[in-house]
Amino acid sequence: MTLVTKSRITVMRGEYHVVDREDVVLTTILGSCVAACIRDPFARTGGMNHFLLPGNNGRSSLDAQSYGVHLMELLVNGLLQRGAHRHRLEAKLFGGARTIEGLSDIGAMNAEFAETFLRNEGISIVGGDLGGDRGRRVEYWPLSGRARQVMLSGDKGFVAPVPPKQPPVAPSGGSVEFF
Amino acid sequence: MSFLEHFKVLVVDDTTTSRMLITDALQEMGIRKISIAKDGEQALRMMMEQPCHMVISDFNMPKLDGLQLLKAIRSYGPTRTTPFILLTGKGDRQLLEAAVALGVNNFLTKPFTIPALKKAIEAIVGVLK
Prior knowledge:
The complex is a heterodimer of chains A (179) and B (129). Chain A is 21% helix and 31% strand. In chain A, helix 1 (61-81) packs across helix 2 (106-121). A 5-stranded mixed sheet of chain A has the order 1-3-8-9-10, with no helix packed on it. The radius of gyration of chain A is 15 Å and the shape is globular. The longest helix of chain A is centred in the middle third of the chain and has 21 residues, at 61-81. Chain A has a single domain (9-153), classed as CATH 3.30.1330.200. By secondary structure, chain A is of the alpha+beta class. Chain A has helices at residues 61-81, 106-121, and strands at 7-10, 16-19, 24-30, 34-40, 45-49, 90-95, 124-130, 136-141, 146-151, 175-178. Chain B is α/β, with parallel strands linked by helices and 129 residues long. In chain B, 45% of the residues lie in helices and 19% in strands. Chain B has a 5-stranded parallel sheet, sandwiched between helices. In chain B, helix 3 packs parallel to helix 4 (66-74) and helix 4 (66-74) packs parallel to helix 5 (93-102). Chain B starts with a helix and ends with a helix. The model of chain B has no long low-confidence stretch (mean pLDDT 94). Chain A binds chain B through residues 59-60, 62-63, 65-67, 69-74, 76-77, 80, 116-117, 120-122, and chain B through 15-18, 20-21, 24-25, 28, 60, 62, 89, 110-114.
C-alpha cells in the first residue's frame, strides 16, 4: 500500500484524537499507560486515546475507573459523532507495561480495565499488545486500522512519555506491525 | 425502614461501564432501589410508567440526549419536579446554561469522584444516612 502520511498527531496522556483522514497517523509513547485505538471500518473514522488510571492511594477504585471510563467514552462518543456505529467498532490495545520493578503493577491494572471496558461495551478487540516490562512507541493509521509498535530499548526505568518534539526511535529492530 | 431504602434512583447512560460504576457508587452510599436505562428514550418510558425520586443522567447519548430527557421530564406532570442531576464533559458552559434554564437540580463534570457524586445528591435531598 502506498500512502503518504502527511500529518502525525501525538496523543499525550489524558488526551484523545479522532480523525477521518487517510493521511494522518496517530502516535504515542506508552509505559504503564494504555492506548486504545478504535475505528469503524465502514464509517472511515478512527481514533486513539491514552490513559493512566490514578493509583489507589486513598482513593476508591471506583474513582480511578471513573477517570478511565471518561477517556474511553470521549473516544467512543467522538467516533459516534463522526458517523460510526457502536456495533461495528473494533479496537487494538497497547501498553500496560510493568515499568518499575517492585511497585504494584499499574500497567496490568490499566490493561485489565481497558479489556473489561471493551468487553462490557461489546467492542471487539482485534489486536494490539499489552504487558511486558518495556515502553512502546505506537503508531496507528485509523482509517486502515494498521498499527505499528516499536519496543523501547530495555530501560526499565522508563515511565513518563517523552515530549512529542523528540520521539525516541529504537535504533535497531523491535518494530512489529499489527494489521 | 430508612429513607435510603425507599429512595429510588434512575441512572441513565449509554456506556455500560459507566452505568455499572454509578450503580456501584450508589450502592456504596446505601441506596438500594436503582433502575438503569441505556438512553434517554428508555429512561423517559420508565419514568412515565413508574416515576422515581431522582434521575442521574449522562448528557451525550443516542436517541434522546440528557437535555432532551430533562425537557421531556419537566413537561410531564408527575415528573415535573423530580430532581435531575446531569453528567457532562468539561467546558460545556452553554450546555449547563441550557440545563439550568430547563430546571436541572445539579450537575457533575466527568470524570467525577464518588464523594463528588454523593455531595451532588446530598445538595438536593440532604445528608444520606
